């Protein structure tokens, strides 16, 4: 058995799903289990509907809802299924408008609809195209805790259910299920966090003992730089789990950061592939180290990062200063990506600033706080970083004209990251890409 996960753009239309069917059809003998995302940008739209409804903008919510319904109808022709799901959504939107509040649990009830629908649609279109397919409701097999909007799988129960349910069905037909969604032990719908379908694919792969987990998307594989920042990067042929995880964590959206965890445990190779160009070999992500003549495998970026500078002559070095800071972040459910400390101050980066005001207010009780918005993290990743001298010099030489802050090397020693101003991101990545990828090891990169 193999797991084949298709992202939003790969199932964005009937036409795209046809392409998926031919990719899956050609691999029938491998007993594919197909995991799909919501069609196109459906999840964003669902979240917008929930937001508008809860803010009392019922007309706005309904306009978007009808648009999304018509889109699903036009692409699938599945009138009853689509109507039923959007009826449910309309009921939820009415409830949200009446209550005027949006809880994580109700966000999940709404945002799960995209994958619930896309998985049914893909199953039906497969059948129409002559591929025998069976739909499995992911909520029956992916069991999670109740941290809605970013739930974690309860592995033991999930693996038990996957192992019992999927292999017998995959024996004769192609199993299709939605990514991203699950349910708590009480059966309440939950989601694994944005981009979570990749994570579903690897949970399923580990649960059924798949021989390979394929992540089909809209790029040729892991590239040497983020194509939304700098086009023209090269495909990385092979990369280790550890390097891929680091890249994902620091913004390489092509892979959800948690994806590699279940795969590592069972040593199942993960491959990133392009559904528009299935003939390209993609990127293999494997447990083994990947030696390379290039020091760096890829450059990841995080845009729109906020940096908080916490300054306290009184408190710094005093017992418990950092604990107090982190307690505040913890209480506000905000995670910190990078941290750097100096004599009397601490700088922290966060990519979710929705609780910024509360955080600043709490910090201001014992420190001065300044905020730098629209910053970006750049992170170079490669296993050779740890034992190659002179990398810092090469980075700073390449970035001569750019203000570089908060330089830090992750504990894994696989990465070297720093913060630049948002407007400096592209020039920084361009300079680093030239510095580190002007010559390519053909064993590792598609030159
Ligand atoms: P899907 O819907 O298939 O899950 P995503 O949009 O989540 O696709 O991820 C694919 C996107 O990731 C690419 O279109 C690309 O813009 C972005 N990306 C960011 N960094 C990288 C990188 N280093 N290599 C490849 N793609 C990257
Ligand atoms: N549809 C979900 C999202 O947009 C999950 C995914 O695509 O991986 O975040
Ligand atoms: Mg994705």
Task: Write a brief caption for the model.
By secondary structure, the protein is α/β, with parallel strands linked by helices. It folds into two domains: 217 residues, Carbamate kinase, CATH 3.40.1160.10; 149 residues, VC0802-like (2-Layer Sandwich). It is built from 14 helices and 17 strands.
What does this structure look like?
Helix content is 39%, strand content 21%. By secondary structure, it is an alpha/beta fold. It has two domains: 217 residues, Carbamate kinase; 149 residues, VC0802-like (2-Layer Sandwich). An eight-stranded mixed sheet has the order 3-5-2-1-8-10-11-9, sandwiched between helices. A six-stranded antiparallel sheet has the order 13-14-12-15-17-16. It starts with a strand and ends in a 10-residue tail after the last helix. The mean pLDDT is 95. The protein binds adenosine-5'-diphosphate, aspartic acid (ASP) and magnesium ion (MG). Aspartic acid binds next to helix 8.
Into how many domains do the coordinates divide? Answer: 2
The overall pLDDT, averaged over residues, is 95
Helices, by number, come to 14
Category by helix and strand content: alpha/beta
User: Level of helix content?
Assistant: 25-40%
Q: For this structure, what is the CATH class of the largest domain?
A: Alpha Beta
Which descriptor suits the 3D outline?
Answer: globular
**Main beta-sheet annotation:** 8 strands, mixed
CATH fold annotation of the largest domain: Carbamate kinase
Radius of gyration: 23 Å
The CATH architecture assignment of the largest domain turns out to be 3-Layer(aba) Sandwich
